[in-house]
Amino acid sequence: MTSPPSPPVTEGAVLFRIPNVDADTKTWYQIQGPHPSSTTPLVVLHGGPGIPHNYLLPLTDLARTHSIPIIFYDQIGCGKSTHLPSRKHDAGFWTVELFLSELDNLLTHLNIQENYNIIGQSWGGMLGACHAIRQPSGLKKLIIANSPADMGSWLEAANRLRSQLPDDVQEVLNRCERKGKEGSEEYEKAMMVFYERHVCRVKPMPADLEESFRQLKEDDTVYLTMNGPSEFNVTGSLKTWDIRQEVHTIKVPTLLLNGRYDEAQDEVVEPYFRAVEKVKWYRFAESSHTPQLEEREEFMKVVAAFLG
Question: Which of the following is catalytic: 61, 81, 122, 230?
């Protein structure tokens, strides 16, 4: 049996004007599959913040097998979009509102603002939820993958999982954090033990995820400013982020996804399930934070069935 042909690919960049930024800033995007006007496209919001789209490229399977237009883009500050390293540590600049405006700008540029679906992964799911709370008329369906509804429960779950790491790994993490050496090779090696358990359990690490992490290491402006130095030490502008009292206003059909070994443990995802009116929840039995890589075939089946 022959596999479906590779979908057509279109790339571009849209000007995104930001107040008090003199330089032209652009959002890079890529469309895989048929033209978005032919059927409802799926817009992909990557995580981080500041971890570019590469690790989500398996979603191209949906373009190949179901002729769904898949729209990837790199949020401003990372990947192939404009980088602004001079704004590192500027919490007043890197806000959820900035990225909501960028998303609206992209939807308008592509002329799909009245008909689109969204899948957001990790931080992308947080962003997608914030977008859906505004009840935009064109959003038809929402997928929130591996995402919290508040940072407090995320940190509680992450630190509980951390406490289950080998003692020598915990010792390295604790010592490096006390000394402010989260950027050291020793710390990164210890973090990799956590990643292999709770971010991606595929060994060796898939090339697309490796590439996203490589680019994050090259420019961590957005991640450091909004999140902080590590998964366990959130000191950035998202530290107090909490939309639990607002998620009931999400009115579109919503699919929640997480993995058994996920950083986004069940209690992290549950507020969405309790509050969103039209909601389904699927947990991947053999996955952690990246089921699109860990259980790729099952992931595509679940997403395709939801999108209909």
Answer: 122
